[in-house]
Structures are given as structure tokens and as C-alpha cells.
Amino acid sequence: MTDHRSPDARFRTSLLEENDGPATNPTENSTMGEIIAERFSRRAFLKGSLAVSAIAATVSPLALVAADDARAAEGSAFSFDELEAGIDDKHHVAPGYDADVLLRWGDPLFADSPEFDPVRQSADAQARQFGYNNDYVGYIGIDGSADHGLLVVNHEYTNPHLMFPGIVKIVEKDGKKAAELAPLSKEQVDVEMAAHGGTIVEIRKEGGKWQVVRDGKLNRRITSNTEMALSGPVAGHGRAKTNADPSGTKVIGTFNNCAGGVTPWGTYVMAEENIHGYFSGELPAGHKEAANYKRLGIPEGAYEWGAHYDRFDLAKEPNEPNRFGWIVEVDVNDPTSTPRKRTAMGRFKHEGAESIVAKDGRVVFYLGDDERFEYVYKFVTAGRFDPDDRAANMNLLDDGTLHVAKFAADGTVEWLPIVFGQGPLTAENGFAGQADVLIETRRAADLLGATKMDRPEDIQPNRVNGKVYVMLTNNSKRKADQVDAANPRADNAFGHIIEISEDGGDFAGTRGKWEVLLKCGDPAVADVGATFSTATTANGWFGMPDSCAVDSAGRLWVATDGQGPKATGRTDGLWAVDTEGPARATSKLFFRVPIGAEMCGPLFAPDDQTAFVAVQHPGDGGEDWEAFGRPSYYEDPSTRWPDFKPDMPVRPAVVAITRQGGGKIAI
User: Fold this and answer.
1) Predicted local confidence at residue 39, as pLDDT
2) Which residues contact 190 (CB under 8 A, 6 or more apart)?
């Protein structure tokens, strides 16, 4: 197979479909659905069923529901008036709040940056403008300020059919009209490459509103062409060497940066996720990386970069994919610094890298591998964080232990070390050292018997209550024989959220307990099996949990990816979820995005007076909604551009949400 995918197959119109991926896990390791089913059926038999039967004999079901509603309403940690769920081409926020666009694709980031011109795009211009499809959002205060700091934003991927005018054509296929995407030119590919990566930009709050500081001395764009260094155990390894880099230490660029994190020492970490789509071509016959790449779905060839650059063609640079799929660390204090790919943290389809300082000073990063039947990880540094010496922390991520989670039906979780020489991670299984184990992290986790999860996405540790929240977006491939009546989640379209309590509150420990906080979906549909509290309104339920945030008060906020006219009858958005007390599992809608957009971020400023959210690919898939209010780009793309306006819902954006009159969000 020498050609990458046909043009019409390149439509990247649904992140859900893309992230659902090829389901490349071949093992028979237990799935989370099987474990949940076993645990809940056992628990229901031991206490749940008997208790419910006893209560029902003396108290009416309606009285129980009313009592639950009252308790939940009194105990909620959130005081805002809930937003109404719906679908249109605008964003909406709860009453009493303002949602102001702070940055949009193409906005200038430097004093000499050109203004955005959608019909005259160039790679040089894009490299000095805000990138496309903003995902992770982080904030690093300047001198500790909550009103003046650096916003760090990932740019995950590109939608060429939304970016470039005139490339979508309507053709006749088998008597039906179909949309076809023309092949991209080298110039358009160069724009795509410049639109990936990340942005570091100074922002300041003035008069209660956030502003971009275009002449900020720390402003920076990171792209698919930024020089980076491999560091840690894989640096210099033979499997990382290429014709262009015989040292195996210098990598050009980063891409598909989904979620990420900010370290305790104030650096920015970017997670490389769906790297498989960028590579095309064929490996030489019998090449030793064939099984490794198959496990990651490489090559998919969704992008045409390999047609113009040898490093994305497996026939010409067969080792290049081993240089992607890592966590990238950036020193935001030095805009000339070389970002470093921290290979000790493993190679897979990283969703994010949120961190917390453990009791003994080691730093723990929670990591999700975002694909069906993949795993939950955490990385524990060998060294300890020094809050008084930033320089001493700058290489903490090069030395530590990566672990993978094994969930048991009795409600315990074990973190299994992924270390060469331990258990099955030996030469007999094809590993010559720790570098091999890390390059093939997925295979190492397979051999350890880790639990196959339903698309692990963002994972957030909570400093206030000591818990860890795991977003599991969905798994449409879950089979009926993997669940039972106590856990009716076959074809798990709506996902769920796991809550972990590490033993002794030690985030660096190797054992803990787990609970299902929420099984998502519409509670009014019995077959869905959702478990929101009875106080959750028709606006409050959600499906497809993706990214999340924990504010300084310890409250959980969940953003979704995949809702829409067909899936849920509502757009994606941001929900506030109670995790404690009588209101536990109660959810309220706070913000929703335009049709076709995915809700990313979210992030709370240190003083909780601003919520930054990222609105990704607005307008994508809008043809599913007849009332969209503008001509579909599928039907007549030329009509979109002559009347182009900056506020049209086709530019991904970061939005700053503040309370009218000031004050903390939702308190």
C-alpha cells in the first residue's frame, strides 16, 4: 500500500471516530466492563439488593426520590443557575456569567505578526499566529499572579475542509452526491504543519477582562518544525536513529498534542496522542518495527505530509514513528529553549499529563492512552520536587518509574511497574533493555496483564480530597457478553468516570481502591443504565466525558466530546459534577459550545475567578443539523468565504468565562 488514504477518506470530521481508533489491542486481558460487571453483581447480591428490598417494603419509591432530590439540592457545591442544553451555532454560558473569546485560530501573537487572512494563508504567517484546534489550556502565573501570566495551549490537529476554501467538491458516486476533498498542495501541508503544536502567550486581566499581550517577551509558537531533543532512556538508542538524525537525539517537531499539563516547577508538558495518522508508506519487508507499529495503528496515512516530506514516509525513514508518541516538556521561561521529549514517561497515544506532588516529595503524573481497550498509567519521578530551586527540578522527568493500572473486581487497583527485567519484561519476550520497554509501552502493559479500558482520556488528581478522576469517553466495541444486568453497558456509547483513592492518600503508592463515580448518558432511557443522581435535571446529564478540571476548592468539572444532534440531541459542553456528600453524582450544565465543536480545556485560574475553555473545530459536522443557519461547506464551499466574518463559528477559540461583577466561579 504505497498511497495514503484517498482524499475523501481524509475527512477528519469527527474526533470521536478518529480517537475510537483501530482497536489494536490483541490481548485477552480483562476489560473494565467485565470487572465492573463482576464487582457490581457481587456487591448487589451482598448488600444492594437486600437493602433496597427492605426499604421498599416500608417506604414508597416516590418518597425516596423526593428525599434524594432534597438532599442533593442542599448538599451541592455549586450555586449557579443551570444552563439549558440545546443546539445552535453559538456558545452559551450560565446566567450571571460572561464568556469572552480571548484567542482564535489565526490571531496574531507577536507585535509583527500578520493579521489573519483565511484566503491568503501561509506557513510563515501561521507560525506567528494562534494555531488550529486548541485543546489543552494551562496557566502559569508571572510572579505568582492570578491576573497576569502565560497561557499555554495545545493545537491538536487540523480540519483542512474547514481551513482552506475551495478544496471540498461535490461529486456523484453511485447515483448519490458525496463530498470529496481535493489533495492538499505542499503549501497547504506547510500551513497544516505550522498550525499544529502549541502556543505560549502572555495574558493580563484588565478591568475584569483578559487581554493578549502581543509584545510579551515570552510569547512563542511551537510547531511540527520546531527542533526538539529526545531525553531519558530512549535518547541515542538505535531504534530512534534516522538518516536525518544518526544521533537518535534530535527530533523535528511535535503533533497531535491533545491534553497536557503544567508541572509544579512551572514548565508546560504536551501530550502526543494520535500519531498514527501522520505516517504513510510501507516498511521494508520483514522490518523489525512492523509489529510495534501495528500495535499503534501506524501507518494510517490520514495526512498527506509523507507526500512532501521523507520523514513521514516509512519506506524512507522507518524509525521516525519511534520518535513520536511521547510527553514533551517546554521551559516557558526561555523562548529559545529546546523542548524535550521525556521518554521515561512511555510511548503511546497520550491524552494528558496532570501531576501532583506526593507526600515524600516525588511527583506523580497520571496518563491516559486514548483508544478503545487501552490502559491507564502513572509515572512517579525518582527525584523529589524542590519548591525553592526550579533548576533542580528541570530533569526530574528523565528518571522515574512508569506504572500501568490493573483494576480488580473487589474494588482494588494495583499499579504495576513497567521496568525491564521485572516479570515478563525480559529478553525472552523481545526486550533488550528499558528503552525497548518504553518504545513498546503498550506491548509491555499487555504482558503485565493491565486492564483494558474504554478510551482513557483526561485523568485528574484532586489535591483537596485526595482522589483521582479518570475520564473514560466510550467504547462502541464493547460486546454484550462482557457485561451483565448489573452493568448494562454493551456498546458503551456514553462512557463513565472512575474515582480512585490511593492507599493512605499516597499518590506515589502502588495500590488503591476504585469506584464508578458516574455511568454517563440519559437517565431517562432505562437501557442506557446511567447513574446520575435523581437531582440531575434533563439539562444536567451528559455523555462522552473527555477532559476535566479540579478547581482550587476541589470541585470536579467535566468537558465532553462527541455529543451532537444524532448522539445526544445536545452540543458538547462543561458540566459541574458533585463528588461529595448527598449531592454526589449530581451534574449541572454550565457552558455549551456551538454545533460541531468539541469542549476542551477546561482550566481554572488560581483564584477561581476565571474558567478558560477551548472550543475545538466549531462547525464541523454541522450538516447533521438542518437549522445550522449557513450554507454547508459540503454543499457549496465557495459561499463560506466571500462573506467571512471573524465571529463565524469556523475558528477554534479559547474563551474566558468570568462572573458578572467579579468573584469566584459558581461559589
Assistant:
1) 56
2) 122, 123
Q: Determine the residue type at 247.
A: S
Tell me the percentage of the chain whose pLDDT exceeds 70: 83
Q: Which helix (H) or strand (E) holds 380?
A: strand 376-384
The span from the CA of 300 to the CA of 306, in Å, is 11
**Distance in angstroms (rounded) separating the CA atoms of residues 368 and 350:** 6
325: left (phi over 0), alpha (psi -120 to 50) or beta: left
**471 CB-side CA count, 13 A:** 29
| C-beta of residue 569 within 8 angstroms of C-beta of residue 544 | no
How, if at all, do strands 176-181 and 197-206 pair?
unpaired
**Could you tell me what percentage of the chain is helix, strand and coil, using 3-state DSSP and rounding each to the nearest 5?**
20, 30, 50
How far is the C-alpha of 159 from the C-alpha of 193, rounded, in Å?
12
Residue type present at position 294: K
- Residue 232, C-alpha cell as written in the block: 531519558
Task: Report how far residue 594's alpha carbon sits from residue 563's, in angstroms, rounded to the nearest whole number.
Answer: 11
Residue pair 197/258 in contact (Cβ under 8 Å)? The answer is no
Residues 513, 410 contacting (CB under 8 angstroms): no
- pLDDT tens-digit map of 81-135: 999 999 988 899 999 999 999 999 999 999 999 999 888 999 999 999 999 999 9
**For 620-667, what is each residue's pLDDT tens digit?**
875 555 554 444 343 344 444 344 443 444 689 999 999 999 999 987
What contacts 69, CB < 8 A, 6 or more positions away?
534, 535
Are 326 and 272 within 8 A, CB to CB? yes
C-alpha R_g of the chain? 24
CA dihedral 442, 473, 608, 500 (to 10 degrees): -60
Exposed/middle/buried for 238, CB within 10 Å: 0-12, 13-18, 19+? exposed
d(CA 516, CA 32): 11
Residue 66 has pLDDT above 60, yes or no: no
Contacts for 392 with CB less than 8 Å, ≥ 6 apart: 386
DSSP characters over 192-206: HHHHSEEEEEEEEEE
Cα–Cα distance measured from residue 154 to residue 197, given in angstroms and rounded to the nearest whole number: 6
Phi, psi of 406 (to 5 degrees): -125, 110
Amino acid code (one letter) for 362: R
Alpha helices in 29-172 (DSSP H): 32-43, 49-56, 61-75, 123-126, 160-163
Q: What is the mean pLDDT of residues 364-381?
A: 96
